[in-house]
Amino acid sequence: MNWRAVGLKFCKVAGLPILEPFVRLVAGEDPKEQLKEIAKYILVPALAIAVFLGFWGLASKHIVANSVSLPGPVKTFSEGGKLISAHFDQKRLDAEARREKKIEAVQLMQKSAAAEKKAQTVSGQQKEMLLANAAVLKKRAVAAANYRPSSAPSFIDQIFNSLKTVAFGFIIATLIAVPLGVLCGMSPWFNAAITPLIQVFKPVSPLAWLPLAMLVILSLSSSGEPWLPIAFLTSAITVCLCSLWPTLVNTTLGVASVDQDYMNVAKVLRLSWSQQLYKIILPASLPLMFAGMRISLGVGWMVLIAADMLAQNPGLGKFVWDEYQNNSQVAIARIAFSVIVIVIGLIGLFLDRIMICLRNLVSFGNPQTA
Protein backbone atom coordinates (compact mmCIF):
# COMPACT_ATOMS: atom_id res chain seq x y z
CA MET A 1 0.00 0.00 0.00
CA ASN A 2 1.56 3.34 -1.08
CA TRP A 3 1.64 6.50 1.00
CA ARG A 4 -1.27 8.05 -0.91
CA ALA A 5 -3.61 5.18 -0.07
CA VAL A 6 -2.45 5.24 3.56
CA GLY A 7 -3.04 8.99 3.79
CA LEU A 8 -6.52 8.80 2.24
CA LYS A 9 -7.49 5.91 4.50
CA PHE A 10 -6.31 7.88 7.54
CA CYS A 11 -8.41 10.89 6.49
CA LYS A 12 -11.51 8.71 6.15
CA VAL A 13 -11.07 6.69 9.34
CA ALA A 14 -10.13 9.72 11.44
CA GLY A 15 -13.10 11.67 10.08
CA LEU A 16 -10.86 14.44 8.70
CA PRO A 17 -12.01 15.12 5.13
CA ILE A 18 -10.33 18.51 5.37
CA LEU A 19 -6.94 16.82 4.89
CA GLU A 20 -7.94 14.66 1.91
CA PRO A 21 -7.50 17.31 -0.84
CA PHE A 22 -4.00 18.10 0.46
CA VAL A 23 -3.03 14.43 0.20
CA ARG A 24 -4.40 14.24 -3.34
CA LEU A 25 -2.70 17.50 -4.29
CA VAL A 26 0.70 16.27 -3.09
CA ALA A 27 0.08 12.99 -4.92
CA GLY A 28 -0.22 14.94 -8.20
CA GLU A 29 -3.96 14.67 -8.83
CA ASP A 30 -5.90 17.38 -10.69
CA PRO A 31 -4.81 20.63 -8.94
CA LYS A 32 -7.94 22.52 -9.99
CA GLU A 33 -10.23 19.94 -8.49
CA GLN A 34 -8.23 19.72 -5.26
CA LEU A 35 -8.11 23.50 -4.87
CA LYS A 36 -11.89 23.48 -5.21
CA GLU A 37 -12.09 20.93 -2.41
CA ILE A 38 -9.70 23.00 -0.27
CA ALA A 39 -11.91 26.03 -0.82
CA LYS A 40 -14.95 24.00 0.23
CA TYR A 41 -13.38 22.61 3.40
CA ILE A 42 -11.23 25.59 4.48
CA LEU A 43 -12.02 28.87 2.77
CA VAL A 44 -15.80 28.65 3.00
CA PRO A 45 -15.77 27.65 6.71
CA ALA A 46 -13.20 30.38 7.39
CA LEU A 47 -15.50 32.90 5.68
CA ALA A 48 -18.44 31.67 7.76
CA ILE A 49 -16.39 32.06 10.95
CA ALA A 50 -15.35 35.56 9.90
CA VAL A 51 -18.99 36.51 9.32
CA PHE A 52 -19.92 35.08 12.73
CA LEU A 53 -17.14 37.06 14.42
CA GLY A 54 -18.30 40.18 12.58
CA PHE A 55 -21.88 39.79 13.81
CA TRP A 56 -20.54 39.04 17.29
CA GLY A 57 -18.48 42.24 17.23
CA LEU A 58 -21.47 44.30 16.08
CA ALA A 59 -23.75 42.74 18.69
CA SER A 60 -21.25 43.48 21.45
CA LYS A 61 -21.68 47.20 20.80
CA HIS A 62 -25.44 47.13 21.28
CA ILE A 63 -26.13 44.47 23.93
CA VAL A 64 -25.82 46.17 27.33
CA ALA A 65 -27.56 45.31 30.61
CA ASN A 66 -26.86 46.70 34.08
CA SER A 67 -23.83 48.59 32.80
CA VAL A 68 -22.29 45.30 31.56
CA SER A 69 -22.03 44.78 27.80
CA LEU A 70 -21.52 41.65 25.75
CA PRO A 71 -17.76 41.28 25.23
CA GLY A 72 -16.51 41.28 21.67
CA PRO A 73 -14.22 38.66 20.15
CA VAL A 74 -11.02 40.61 20.96
CA LYS A 75 -11.95 41.07 24.62
CA THR A 76 -13.07 37.45 24.92
CA PHE A 77 -9.89 35.98 23.47
CA SER A 78 -7.79 38.40 25.49
CA GLU A 79 -9.36 37.23 28.76
CA GLY A 80 -9.04 33.63 27.62
CA GLY A 81 -5.34 34.13 27.06
CA LYS A 82 -5.03 35.59 30.56
CA LEU A 83 -6.81 32.55 32.03
CA ILE A 84 -4.44 30.16 30.29
CA SER A 85 -1.32 32.14 31.19
CA ALA A 86 -2.52 32.35 34.81
CA HIS A 87 -2.63 28.55 34.88
CA PHE A 88 1.00 28.22 33.85
CA ASP A 89 2.05 31.00 36.24
CA GLN A 90 0.32 29.21 39.09
CA LYS A 91 1.90 25.88 38.16
CA ARG A 92 5.32 27.54 38.08
CA LEU A 93 4.78 29.05 41.54
CA ASP A 94 3.53 25.72 42.88
CA ALA A 95 6.57 23.93 41.47
CA GLU A 96 8.90 26.48 43.08
CA ALA A 97 7.09 26.08 46.42
CA ARG A 98 7.41 22.28 46.25
CA ARG A 99 11.08 22.56 45.37
CA GLU A 100 11.69 24.87 48.34
CA LYS A 101 9.84 22.50 50.64
CA LYS A 102 11.95 19.57 49.45
CA ILE A 103 15.13 21.54 50.17
CA GLU A 104 13.73 22.40 53.57
CA ALA A 105 12.95 18.71 54.20
CA VAL A 106 16.53 17.72 53.38
CA GLN A 107 17.92 20.43 55.70
CA LEU A 108 15.61 19.36 58.53
CA MET A 109 16.65 15.73 58.14
CA GLN A 110 20.29 16.78 58.29
CA LYS A 111 19.63 18.72 61.49
CA SER A 112 17.77 15.74 62.92
CA ALA A 113 20.64 13.39 62.10
CA ALA A 114 23.09 15.82 63.68
CA ALA A 115 20.96 16.01 66.85
CA GLU A 116 20.78 12.20 67.07
CA LYS A 117 24.53 11.94 66.56
CA LYS A 118 25.18 14.48 69.29
CA ALA A 119 22.77 12.66 71.62
CA GLN A 120 25.02 9.61 71.47
CA THR A 121 27.84 11.59 73.11
CA VAL A 122 25.82 12.83 76.09
CA SER A 123 23.53 11.32 78.68
CA GLY A 124 20.71 12.14 81.02
CA GLN A 125 18.29 15.03 80.47
CA GLN A 126 20.39 16.58 77.72
CA LYS A 127 20.22 13.36 75.67
CA GLU A 128 16.44 13.20 76.05
CA MET A 129 16.11 16.81 74.88
CA LEU A 130 18.29 16.15 71.81
CA LEU A 131 16.31 13.03 70.86
CA ALA A 132 13.01 14.87 71.34
CA ASN A 133 14.29 17.71 69.15
CA ALA A 134 15.40 15.19 66.50
CA ALA A 135 11.91 13.64 66.49
CA VAL A 136 10.30 17.06 66.01
CA LEU A 137 12.69 17.85 63.16
CA LYS A 138 11.81 14.54 61.47
CA LYS A 139 8.09 15.29 61.67
CA ARG A 140 8.66 18.71 60.14
CA ALA A 141 10.80 17.14 57.42
CA VAL A 142 8.08 14.61 56.56
CA ALA A 143 5.47 17.39 56.45
CA ALA A 144 7.70 19.47 54.16
CA ALA A 145 8.39 16.50 51.88
CA ASN A 146 4.65 15.79 51.58
CA TYR A 147 3.75 19.43 50.94
CA ARG A 148 0.94 19.99 48.43
CA PRO A 149 0.05 23.51 47.23
CA SER A 150 -3.36 24.65 48.42
CA SER A 151 -4.00 27.06 45.55
CA ALA A 152 -7.47 27.04 43.99
CA PRO A 153 -7.88 25.01 40.76
CA SER A 154 -7.05 27.03 37.67
CA PHE A 155 -9.15 27.24 34.52
CA ILE A 156 -7.17 24.42 32.87
CA ASP A 157 -7.55 22.29 36.02
CA GLN A 158 -11.31 22.79 35.86
CA ILE A 159 -11.34 21.71 32.21
CA PHE A 160 -9.54 18.47 33.07
CA ASN A 161 -11.87 17.90 36.01
CA SER A 162 -14.85 18.29 33.68
CA LEU A 163 -13.31 15.81 31.25
CA LYS A 164 -12.82 13.31 34.09
CA THR A 165 -16.43 13.82 35.18
CA VAL A 166 -17.79 13.22 31.68
CA ALA A 167 -15.51 10.23 31.12
CA PHE A 168 -16.59 8.64 34.41
CA GLY A 169 -20.29 9.17 33.71
CA PHE A 170 -19.96 8.06 30.08
CA ILE A 171 -18.14 4.84 31.02
CA ILE A 172 -20.78 3.95 33.60
CA ALA A 173 -23.55 4.71 31.07
CA THR A 174 -21.86 2.51 28.46
CA LEU A 175 -21.41 -0.38 30.91
CA ILE A 176 -25.13 -0.21 31.69
CA ALA A 177 -26.54 0.55 28.24
CA VAL A 178 -24.60 -1.95 26.10
CA PRO A 179 -25.59 -5.14 27.98
CA LEU A 180 -29.20 -3.94 28.28
CA GLY A 181 -29.25 -3.06 24.57
CA VAL A 182 -27.89 -6.48 23.61
CA LEU A 183 -30.57 -8.19 25.70
CA CYS A 184 -33.29 -5.96 24.24
CA GLY A 185 -32.11 -6.69 20.70
CA MET A 186 -31.90 -10.43 21.24
CA SER A 187 -35.12 -10.88 23.22
CA PRO A 188 -38.41 -9.32 22.04
CA TRP A 189 -39.92 -10.06 25.47
CA PHE A 190 -37.15 -8.25 27.33
CA ASN A 191 -37.39 -5.37 24.84
CA ALA A 192 -41.15 -5.11 25.48
CA ALA A 193 -40.46 -4.87 29.21
CA ILE A 194 -37.71 -2.23 28.95
CA THR A 195 -39.21 0.00 26.22
CA PRO A 196 -41.79 1.73 28.49
CA LEU A 197 -39.04 2.60 30.96
CA ILE A 198 -36.89 4.03 28.16
CA GLN A 199 -39.74 6.16 26.86
CA VAL A 200 -40.52 7.49 30.34
CA PHE A 201 -36.99 8.25 31.55
CA LYS A 202 -35.36 9.38 28.31
CA PRO A 203 -36.97 12.89 28.20
CA VAL A 204 -36.22 13.67 31.87
CA SER A 205 -34.13 16.82 32.30
CA PRO A 206 -30.71 16.63 33.98
CA LEU A 207 -31.95 19.27 36.46
CA ALA A 208 -34.54 16.72 37.62
CA TRP A 209 -32.06 13.85 37.88
CA LEU A 210 -29.48 15.76 39.90
CA PRO A 211 -31.36 16.07 43.26
CA LEU A 212 -32.23 12.37 43.13
CA ALA A 213 -28.64 11.43 42.31
CA MET A 214 -27.37 13.58 45.18
CA LEU A 215 -29.88 11.99 47.58
CA VAL A 216 -28.77 8.47 46.66
CA ILE A 217 -25.06 9.33 46.92
CA LEU A 218 -25.51 11.05 50.29
CA SER A 219 -27.45 8.05 51.54
CA LEU A 220 -24.77 5.58 50.42
CA SER A 221 -21.96 7.71 51.85
CA SER A 222 -23.64 8.33 55.23
CA SER A 223 -21.89 5.33 56.75
CA GLY A 224 -18.40 6.58 55.93
CA GLU A 225 -16.21 8.81 53.79
CA PRO A 226 -16.93 8.25 50.04
CA TRP A 227 -14.05 7.10 47.86
CA LEU A 228 -14.68 10.05 45.52
CA PRO A 229 -15.92 13.60 46.26
CA ILE A 230 -19.71 13.79 46.56
CA ALA A 231 -19.95 16.71 44.10
CA PHE A 232 -17.92 14.77 41.51
CA LEU A 233 -20.08 11.65 41.92
CA THR A 234 -23.29 13.67 41.71
CA SER A 235 -22.27 15.34 38.44
CA ALA A 236 -20.96 12.07 36.97
CA ILE A 237 -24.10 10.09 37.84
CA THR A 238 -26.28 12.87 36.40
CA VAL A 239 -24.25 12.74 33.17
CA CYS A 240 -24.65 8.95 33.17
CA LEU A 241 -28.44 9.05 33.62
CA CYS A 242 -28.84 11.54 30.77
CA SER A 243 -26.42 9.96 28.31
CA LEU A 244 -27.12 6.23 28.48
CA TRP A 245 -30.32 6.31 26.40
CA PRO A 246 -28.84 6.89 22.91
CA THR A 247 -26.38 4.03 23.42
CA LEU A 248 -29.14 1.78 24.71
CA VAL A 249 -31.49 2.53 21.79
CA ASN A 250 -28.80 2.24 19.10
CA THR A 251 -27.38 -0.97 20.57
CA THR A 252 -30.87 -2.48 20.59
CA LEU A 253 -31.38 -1.43 16.97
CA GLY A 254 -27.96 -2.75 15.94
CA VAL A 255 -28.47 -6.16 17.54
CA ALA A 256 -32.03 -6.47 16.20
CA SER A 257 -30.85 -5.53 12.69
CA VAL A 258 -28.24 -8.30 12.36
CA ASP A 259 -28.70 -10.03 9.01
CA GLN A 260 -30.85 -13.12 9.47
CA ASP A 261 -28.61 -15.04 7.08
CA TYR A 262 -25.79 -14.72 9.63
CA MET A 263 -28.01 -16.23 12.31
CA ASN A 264 -29.08 -19.05 10.00
CA VAL A 265 -25.43 -19.89 9.33
CA ALA A 266 -24.83 -19.89 13.09
CA LYS A 267 -27.64 -22.41 13.53
CA VAL A 268 -26.23 -24.61 10.77
CA LEU A 269 -22.80 -24.51 12.44
CA ARG A 270 -24.48 -25.19 15.80
CA LEU A 271 -22.81 -22.28 17.50
CA SER A 272 -23.60 -21.80 21.17
CA TRP A 273 -25.35 -18.70 22.46
CA SER A 274 -22.07 -17.15 23.60
CA GLN A 275 -20.41 -17.94 20.25
CA GLN A 276 -23.28 -16.30 18.38
CA LEU A 277 -22.98 -13.25 20.64
CA TYR A 278 -19.21 -12.73 20.35
CA LYS A 279 -18.62 -13.92 16.78
CA ILE A 280 -21.72 -12.60 14.97
CA ILE A 281 -24.04 -10.31 16.92
CA LEU A 282 -21.55 -7.94 18.55
CA PRO A 283 -19.26 -7.49 15.49
CA ALA A 284 -22.27 -6.82 13.25
CA SER A 285 -23.82 -4.30 15.66
CA LEU A 286 -20.66 -2.40 16.60
CA PRO A 287 -21.09 0.44 14.03
CA LEU A 288 -24.57 1.35 15.32
CA MET A 289 -23.43 0.83 18.88
CA PHE A 290 -20.59 3.33 18.45
CA ALA A 291 -22.94 5.75 16.70
CA GLY A 292 -25.10 5.67 19.84
CA MET A 293 -22.05 6.14 22.05
CA ARG A 294 -21.09 9.18 19.98
CA ILE A 295 -24.50 10.74 20.62
CA SER A 296 -24.31 9.79 24.30
CA LEU A 297 -20.94 11.46 24.71
CA GLY A 298 -22.27 14.65 23.11
CA VAL A 299 -25.31 14.62 25.40
CA GLY A 300 -23.10 14.04 28.43
CA TRP A 301 -20.88 16.97 27.52
CA MET A 302 -23.92 19.25 27.15
CA VAL A 303 -25.41 18.09 30.46
CA LEU A 304 -22.11 18.65 32.29
CA ILE A 305 -22.41 22.43 32.68
CA ALA A 306 -25.79 22.29 34.41
CA ALA A 307 -24.69 19.35 36.58
CA ASP A 308 -21.50 21.10 37.71
CA MET A 309 -23.40 24.31 38.45
CA LEU A 310 -25.91 22.66 40.76
CA ALA A 311 -23.56 20.12 42.36
CA GLN A 312 -20.78 22.72 42.76
CA ASN A 313 -18.31 20.26 41.26
CA PRO A 314 -15.04 22.15 40.54
CA GLY A 315 -15.36 22.00 36.76
CA LEU A 316 -16.39 24.25 33.91
CA GLY A 317 -19.96 24.56 35.16
CA LYS A 318 -18.85 25.86 38.54
CA PHE A 319 -16.39 28.19 36.79
CA VAL A 320 -19.19 29.65 34.65
CA TRP A 321 -21.45 30.04 37.71
CA ASP A 322 -18.77 31.69 39.84
CA GLU A 323 -17.91 34.13 37.07
CA TYR A 324 -21.60 34.90 36.55
CA GLN A 325 -21.90 35.78 40.23
CA ASN A 326 -19.11 38.35 39.78
CA ASN A 327 -21.29 40.18 37.21
CA SER A 328 -18.45 42.18 35.69
CA GLN A 329 -17.22 42.85 32.18
CA VAL A 330 -14.20 40.60 32.73
CA ALA A 331 -16.35 37.80 34.14
CA ILE A 332 -18.72 37.86 31.15
CA ALA A 333 -15.73 37.75 28.78
CA ARG A 334 -14.38 34.70 30.63
CA ILE A 335 -17.76 33.00 30.39
CA ALA A 336 -17.90 33.70 26.65
CA PHE A 337 -14.41 32.28 26.22
CA SER A 338 -15.06 29.12 28.25
CA VAL A 339 -18.44 28.35 26.67
CA ILE A 340 -17.97 29.42 23.05
CA VAL A 341 -14.30 28.62 22.46
CA ILE A 342 -13.47 25.78 24.84
CA VAL A 343 -16.64 23.83 25.61
CA ILE A 344 -18.56 23.98 22.35
CA GLY A 345 -15.75 24.88 19.99
CA LEU A 346 -12.69 22.76 20.74
CA ILE A 347 -13.35 20.08 23.33
CA GLY A 348 -16.77 19.14 21.94
CA LEU A 349 -15.29 18.86 18.45
CA PHE A 350 -12.33 16.83 19.76
CA LEU A 351 -14.56 14.35 21.60
CA ASP A 352 -16.84 13.99 18.58
CA ARG A 353 -13.86 13.28 16.29
CA ILE A 354 -12.63 10.59 18.69
CA MET A 355 -15.97 8.79 18.57
CA ILE A 356 -16.14 9.08 14.78
CA CYS A 357 -12.68 7.55 14.54
CA LEU A 358 -13.62 4.67 16.86
CA ARG A 359 -16.84 4.07 14.93
CA ASN A 360 -14.98 3.98 11.61
CA LEU A 361 -12.44 1.52 13.00
CA VAL A 362 -15.20 -1.02 13.68
CA SER A 363 -17.34 -0.25 10.60
CA PHE A 364 -17.56 -2.53 7.64
CA GLY A 365 -17.22 -1.09 4.13
CA ASN A 366 -16.51 2.58 3.52
CA PRO A 367 -15.95 4.64 6.69
CA GLN A 368 -17.98 7.81 7.14
CA THR A 369 -16.50 11.20 7.93
CA ALA A 370 -19.42 12.52 9.99
UniProtKB/TrEMBL annotation:
It is found in: Cell membrane. The chain crosses the membrane at residues 41-59, 167-192, 204-221, 227-248, 280-311, 331-351. GO terms for biological process: transmembrane transport. Pfam families: BPD_transp_1. Its main location: membrane. Residues 159-348 form the ABC transmembrane type-1 domain. It is a multi-pass membrane protein. InterPro entries: MetI-like, MetI-like_sf. Keywords: Cell membrane, Membrane, Transmembrane, Transmembrane helix, Transport. GO terms for cellular component: plasma membrane. Belongs to the binding-protein-dependent transport system permease family. This is Bicarbonate transport system permease protein CmpB. It comes from Stieleria bergensis. The lineage of its organism: Bacteria, Pseudomonadati, Planctomycetota, Planctomycetia, Pirellulales.
